[in-house]
Design a protein that fits this description.
Layout: H1 2-21, E1 47-58, E2 61-65, E3 73-77, E4 80-81, H2 90-100, E5 106-114, E6 120-126, E7 129-130, H3 131-137, E8 142-143, H4 151-162, H5 177-186
Parallel strand pairs: 3-6
Antiparallel strand pairs: 1-2, 1-5, 2-3, 4-8, 5-6, 6-7
């Protein structure tokens, strides 16, 4: 049994290394800031880390403990925007991300820089699944138009809309999270 577990851990580590070395299209984005039109900065280095998920706050953010950091890192899934917790579908989006990236599990974090809130903007892979894409594919998040540059995310969103998955199956058309946040700010 111990031999099987060590083989399992070895194979899991090997898969994580493979994911870490596989190329990912990406650019440096400054969500919540104002990037230059096109978002492209091909000189930006993507840093890949294998981290342990500690918590999932909502449908597009989590915390992870990464080697070399004393504190947990705040991670923001880049190029997508999920409903806020106080918004319709917000709890479902959070729970779906938690099912993909269970607290305590390992994840490959493709760090693409920081946003103005000092969160790590990242593509996150949990159990060999691209969590950013999976959230859009399941209809649990929008493609964040202002920051997105991955055409596959748009294809996944269109399919989710056509199939009425997740928030796209709601009787009332869901409010975009960025509109929800703007209205919340204006009401203060």
């Amino acid at each position: 049994m111990a031999h099987f577990l060590s083989l399992h851990h070895f194979l899991t580590a090997l898969c994580l290394v493979f994911l870490a070395l596989s190329p990912v299209q990406g650019t440096s984005l400054a969500m919540a800031g104002k990037p230059a039109p096109g978002n492209a900065d091909n000189n930006q280095k993507v840093v890949t880390r294998t981290c342990r998920i500690t918590s999932v706050h909502d449908g597009d953010s989590m915390r992870a403990r990464c080697p070399g950091f004393r504190k947990t890192l705040r991670i923001r899934l880049e190029q997508i925007d999920a409903p806020e917790i106080g918004q319709a579908h917000g709890t479902q989006a959070r729970d779906y991300l938690r099912s993909l990236c269970k607290p305590g599990s390992l994840a490959v974090i493709k760090d693409k820089g920081r946003d103005v809130y000092h969160r790590v903007l990242a593509r996150v892979f949990c159990n060999d699944t691209d969590a950013n894409a999976a959230m859009v594919e399941a209809g649990m998040a929008w493609v964040y138009d202002y920051y997105a540059d991955d055409p596959n995310l748009y294809r996944l969103q269109k399919a989710a809309q056509e199939d009425k998955k997740g928030l796209w199956g709601a009787a009332i058309f869901p409010q975009k999270p960025w509109d929800f946040r703007r209205r919340q700010r204006n009401q203060r």
